[in-house]
Each structure stands twice: as structure tokens, then as C-alpha cells.
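Re: weekly structure request thread

Next one in the queue (433 aa):
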Amino acid sequence: MDFFYNFFSENFIPHGHCYLWKPELVSLHILSDVIIALSYYSIPLTLVYFVRKRIDVPFRNIFLLFGAFIISCGTTHIVEVWTLWHPVYWLSGAIKALTAIISFYTALTLIPLVPLALALPSPAQLEAANKALQEENIERKRVEQELREYKERLEELVKQRTTELAKANEQLQQEIIQRQHSQDRMAQLLKKVESANKELNDFAYVVSHDLKAPLRGISSLSEWLLADYADKFDEQGREFVNLLINRVQKMQNLIDGILQYSRVGRLQEESRQVNLNKVVADVIDLLSPSENIQIEIANKLPIVYCEKTRIEQVFQNLLSNAIKFIDQLQGKIVIDCTEDNDYWYFSVADNGLGIEKQYFERIFQIFQKLSSNKDSDSTGIGLALVKKIVEMYDGKVWVESEVGQGSTFFFTLKKQVQIKRAEDFIKSNLPPQ
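Done, posted below.
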């Protein structure tokens, strides 16, 4: 205790010596400081009582800060009384410093609250708001009365509407009967579609067997002539025979292309999960491009739900088309795939001859080809076949190209693809009756 006392007093003279220990002066300071301290202590108690009773009062924290500030101020007056006899001036200064900190923090906290406090509604404003609420209540009762009247009118309207709905129901029954007739008509149409499908299959067989058989005979006969009578032909004669063989081969390719084109949408194989990485690898292996042509797959291709043969035809035609029209010493073909929420976006890019913009739509039409080379084996069906297959899967195909800069063919496939039924596909192409 002595250490504590000596630490704070350091042998200072008590404050009473400054008053020369005059009883009246000392009593005046004691009485004043005690009354001030008791008053200070009573104010926080009142504030705490007020805050506890009015839990909805705003700015509760500032009330607590005011309480702490006032208590610390009252404590400084108690210490002033104590220092009259005990010179603990360091303790007195520390309490004053604490009071200064609390008062300074309270002041800083109070400043930004002033605009908020000014924004609070005044009693006059609250009274006006209360009056407005009373008027609103009167208006609400009036509206309720009007609503009751509207309700009675609505009940009358409901009766009228019920009668109208009964008539509409009769009309709906008639429409149902008409729809039933339409369904019967659709069933008849489906039978016609099935019949047309059978006729198309028969026609495909005739084309494949009856047309290709004579062509094979002509090709074989031409090859025999060239082999057995080669010494009888001059150079022009051999050229004519070779030209004949080439034309026969082109005719066979054209028939094969027509058959493939006609089968799209009519003949369906089972749809299943198809790994496009393996499909593209198999197509590249089948096409066997020359060593100067590099085929690159930029990104891993997805697994899609489709008919394997159809998607093979798409990549086979696009890749063979790209290989055919590359005129560079080092050809390059890049296969890429991106995705969004609903579609896969595929692209096949090459550094070949390129295509003029005016032909972007034409090249996807059947029997339309840009090459005028008589020796070209192009039938003008490949890209039309690609377009037909992609559209069968609710996708689209297009090309971007610059002459001399190569071409990029794009096509899309739905992630959750729904294959059109053969009957629907044929029906959409039937002439109106």
C-alpha cells in the first residue's frame, strides 16, 4: 500500500496546503466537488434507466458513451477532494487523461450522428403523419365499401361469364371432334409416308443395282480394251479410253452420293454415345492424307449422342473436301470444338485455295461445285449431305473463307439432340394435297 501511495504521490505537497488549510475554503471545495460528483453519477443512472425502458430509442451507443464520460468527470471531482490531503497527482492526472480520451471519442462519435438526429421526424411531423394515417384509414374504409360494391357487380359478371363459358365449352367439344378428324387424317398421311418410304427404298435399290451394273460393265469393258488393244490405240485413243473410265467412275461416285443423300432422314440406325475423337481418328485413317498435309485436333472432342454413321459422313466429307482443295506444299487442317449452354460448335479449318464470298450459300446446294476441272472427282453432293445431316440434328452449318487464305467450315450440334423421325422428315418434303 505504501508503495502504491509513494508511486502516485512522489512526496508532493497535498492540495490543501494551497488553500492554507483554511476551513471555510477547504469546506467550499469539498462540498462543491462532492455535489458535482453525485450529480454526475446520477445522470448516467438516469440515462441507463431511460435506454432500458425505451429499447426503440435510436443511437443507444451514444447514450452509453455519455454515461461513461459523465462518470469519469464525476470521478475527477472525487479525486480532487482526495488530493486535498493525499497528493496522488499522478492518479488524478491519469483519471483526467482517461476522461479526456472518453470525452474525445464521444465527441467524434457524436459529430456524424448530428445529421442523422436532425433527420429524425419532429413531434409536429409525427403529428402530421398520424393525421395522414387517420385520413388514410378513412380512405381505406371507403375503398373497402367500393370493393364490396365491385364484388357484387363481379358476381353478376361471373354469372354472365358462366353462361358464355358453357357456350364456349360446346364450341370446344366441336373443335375436339374436328381435331379427332385431323388425327385420323394424320394417320392416313402417315400410311402414305410409310408407303412413300418403301417406294424410296425400292427406288434406291433400283438405282444401286440396275444403274450401277451397266456402269460396272462399261468400266470393265474399257479396261479390257485398254489392256488387250493398247498397241492398237494411238496416244489420243488411249486418252479417250482413260477419259471414258474416268467418266464412268464419276458416274458411279455420283450415284453413291445421291444414294447417301436420299437415305438421310429415311434410314436410321440406333443412336448411342459416340466418341468423336475415335470417329475423327478413324476418318483420317480412312482418307490417308499425303505426308505434306498435317491434320491437327486443337481441343479434345466431346462424346455426343447421335447416329455414328451420320457423324462419320459429316467429318469425312469436310475433311476430304479440305484435303482436295489444299494447294500448299505444306497443308494444314485444324479440327476444333467449343461449347456453350446448349450447343457444341465444331470447325474444320484449312490453308487451301479459299472460296469467294458469293459462293458461301451455293456450295451447300446439291450438285453445286466450284471446281471446273473436268478430271475432278467432285460430285457436288458432299457439302449438301453435310448440311442435310446437321440440320437433321437441329444444327446449322456455314463457312468463312478468303481466297488464297483457306476456309473454315463450322457446324453445330445440340448437346441434348433429338433426331427427327424419318416420317416427319419425309412428310415435311411431301407436296401439299
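The CA atoms of residues 59 and 388 lie 74 Å apart. The radius of gyration is 50 Å.
Next request, please.
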